Amino acid sequence: MSQNSKANTIPRKALVTGGATGIGWAICQRFAASGILCVIADINEKAAQERARTLGPGHVAIGVDLSDLVQAAGLVARAAQVMGGLDIVVNNAGITDTSGRRVGEIPIGDFERLVAVNLSSVDVICQASQEVLQAGGVVVNLASGAAYRPLALRGAYSATKAAILALTKTYNTLAEKLGQRVCAVAPGYVRTELVESLIANGRLDAEAAAATVPLGRLGDPDDIARAVAFLASPEGGPLAGECLSVDGGTITSGGRPL
Ligand code: NAD
């Protein structure tokens, strides 16, 4: 057996934050289907453990609250220790303000939590990933169409996602020297718990939202998972520091998120 074919038999290992539900869970399922072992890191530790059991042997769960930057900073090393190394890190966990308040009306504590989970934790995880990932390692960050066209009543969320685009490019510049890549994916509306909660409390009209998508439908979590899996694969190699919009053409066509 050549050294290369031996190396190819070693499963790659991925850390997915917020992997217990929605897009993160779809990413874990797609990774697992291609033989990648997952660390599902989530504030909902019980759900993460159930998901890891569902994926099977070799997949593990870690409970973490990413609003606590000490926990976030230690997560990558913790995951690498459990798995014996890491090849892929997906910064997927994210929260939004579903109250419909304008950005200046959000209490400072809620604002700070949003920034901590959506942005600061991504920063410390990108930083830690550069130390832990080998050459060939990939980080994929979840941005949003809101990064390009801010949402009127979710200004703070939009600001964190716009910052993810800059952070992705900045960390990619540093990662290049290490033979690593940092990319991002910007989903349009995807029917996950986050979006279902907006629909349930009347903050989003599902039909009106679908009408803004040239493709004619809201996204499915696996639409996003396929893009993340591609970016994280060796085939995604030429893409570095870039953000893929996976939104059925919404942003490209000038469509406006609601
Ligand atoms: P979701 O709410 O369905 O799932 C988020 C996951 O993150 C959950 O498992 C939750 O427990 C976990 N999480 C929340 N706070 C956490 C914390 N403090 N520490 C650790 N884990 C935490 O969300 P989703 O819709 O699957 O979104 C995933 C990502 O995609 C987010 O970054 C979101 O901003 C982005 N996004 C989603 C949409 C969409 O329409 N759903 C659109 C654009 C971007």
TrEMBL record:
UniProt keyword terms in alphabetical order: Oxidoreductase
Highest taxon listed in the record's lineage: Bacteria
Keyword Transmembrane helix found: no
GO molecular function, one term: oxidoreductase activity
UniProt record similarity statement: Belongs to the short-chain dehydrogenases/reductases (SDR) family.
Protein name from the UniProt record: Uncharacterized protein
Originating organism: Pseudosulfitobacter pseudonitzschiae
Parent-protein residues present: 1 to 258 of 423
